[in-house]
Amino acid sequence: MRLVFAGTPEPAVVALEKLIASDHEVVAVLTRPDARRGRGRTLHPSPVKALALEHGIEVLTPTTLKRNEEVKARLQELAPDAIPVVAYGSLIPENYLGIPTHGWVNLHFSQLPQWRGAAPVQAGILHGDEYSGATTFRIDAGLDTGDIICQVSEPIRSTDTADDLLTRLAYSGADLLVRTMDELAAGTATLTPQEGEASYAPKITKDDARINWTAPAIEIDRAIRAYTPGPGAWTMLDGQRVKVGPVVVDDCLSPTSPGHVTVSKNTVTVGTGTTPVVLQMIQPPGKKMMVAADWARGLHSAEGVVFE
């Protein structure tokens, strides 16, 4: 089939690579405009654009699709059989949906209708789900409400950060997307309406990622892993924001006051609403992420150190 691929960040690159290597033809890529980043604030292409250019594939980078007749006309000229979508980052207007013969097919990193929305991977970890997964579905006018084509399941490990889980899903999801395109091309795809109660995973803000030390240790562990690497779990210390890496829950530790830091030999623990957690990594202001024990050795005294 003739495909136009829509995607932007690194996890979408795996899917584009698999489609390029498949029997399908990727005739163009739709991605977000170049973004400024780094100290010099220089413009950088999206990871998807960079890969497309390596393969000599046409790239479209509209700021928005809404009321963009030029991009709409170009997509119509390209006459794609399907437009697979992986984390494109922009809404698809309803008047675009009929352009490809088989529609816009989204790869979503959850088992829909569970965790519709922008942050399904983080939501699964945050809520203690045993399984996550990936779903391909035909985009309609709703938010992740379209008919399901294929699904795959992926267990959530007890140590998974959002990055760990998303990396695995990027690969299993890419295979799922190729399989979906194969089935659409062969006419064997079955589209099934979503059933069951839906749950939602809204976009995560920096405020969401602030650690609540009065919560149970298990919830703090999940929250920190869900917000790693982005936006990064954080807390306040002496009026400054400090980032915190994944922790270890140890039910054998004696309870201490929430947020209270205790240093003993090479171990740093922080009190929670239940038992303390063992702090492994910390990023003080203006510094790189470092081993918590090394950070603690640099303190004049650990006595009275409290995270807020």
Automatic annotation (TrEMBL):
Keyword DNA repair in annotation: no
A GO CC term assigned to this protein in UniProt: cytosol
Pfam families linked to this entry: Formyl_trans_C (PF02911), Formyl_trans_N (PF00551)
Signal sequence, start to end: none
Domain Formyl transferase N-terminal: 2-180
MF-aspect GO terms: methionyl-tRNA formyltransferase activity
Domain of life: Bacteria
Keywords: Protein biosynthesis, Transferase
Annotated EC: 2.1.2.9
EC class name: transferase
Keyword RNA-binding: no
CDD domains the record matches: FMT_core_Met-tRNA-FMT_N (cd08646), Met_tRNA_FMT_C (cd08704)
Reaction catalyzed: L-methionyl-tRNA(fMet) + (6R)-10-formyltetrahydrofolate = N-formyl-L-methionyl-tRNA(fMet) + (6S)-5,6,7,8-tetrahydrofolate + H(+)
Residues covered by the Formyl transferase C-terminal domain: 203-299
Residues that bind (6S)-5,6,7,8-tetrahydrofolate: 110-113
Family the UniProt entry places it in: Belongs to the Fmt family.
Reported function: Attaches a formyl group to the free amino group of methionyl-tRNA(fMet). The formyl group appears to play a dual role in the initiator identity of N-formylmethionyl-tRNA by promoting its recognition by IF2 and preventing the misappropriation of this tRNA by the elongation apparatus.
Protein name: Methionyl-tRNA formyltransferase
Taxonomic placement: Bacteria, Bacillati, Actinomycetota, Actinomycetes, Mycobacteriales
